[in-house]
Fold this sequence. Notes:
The protein is of the alpha/beta class. Helices cover 34% and strands 30% of the residues. It has a 5-stranded parallel sheet, sandwiched between helices. Keywords: DNA-binding, Phosphoprotein.
Amino acid sequence: MTILLIEDEPLVAKNLVRMVQQLEPGAVVLGPLGSVSAGLAYLRSHTQPDLVVSDIQLSDGVSFDIFRQADLRCPVIFTTAYDEYAIRAFKLNSIDYLLKPIDPDELKSAFAKYHQWHGTSAGTDFREQLRDLLLDFTEHAPAKKYKRRFTGHYLRQIVPVPQEQVACFTRDEVIYLYTADGHKLITDYSTLDELEDLTDPTVFFRANRQFLLHLAAIAGYQSHYSGKLLVLLKKPHDIEVAISKEKAPMFREWFEQG
């Protein structure tokens, strides 16, 4: 039995590997993979596993995008903090789900369900069930709402900053917010990962580990001989931000579509 794990949170992934190995000692554990792109690349180039255990929200999208494009033929156990509607849909389609943090007993029950279901006539209908679930969820899932106002510390006050006034967020021990008119505010956000999840991806772009950029604050960019890009922010900042060769195509597409 082979089990493919798809999970982008390192600590959660580590604990999930440990639990799976304890509960299914005879299984070959594949992954964990942390993104939609990695999941697609793996399933397109390898024999499909017997079972997938997958988070829904990944670093570059939702895992549903993997299963829409990869013609998955095996069952999935979803791990999720999603809303009640999604949970009802999973039950209706005989696909199990686990709410985070994952409870070992619930994972054990999910594996037991898989073993009971595997090889039965119900198992042969999985592809159709998964397709119906993905269509149903796409049609009814509520649109994600992104944060449009942020806060920062300025002159011993906490002040609001509308999305339109943000030039970028940057990490340097703490998370700073640069405003379009040149102010640098300390925020109470913990990580850029947190902010990336809160912000509209059509407006903000995660350039690297240090910068999350607002589209309107970008003066332009130039290509470097190494393949990376150098992005220049508008005055009064005049900040130059490097984007890796690997991420350059994503930035170009985002910048042109935005």
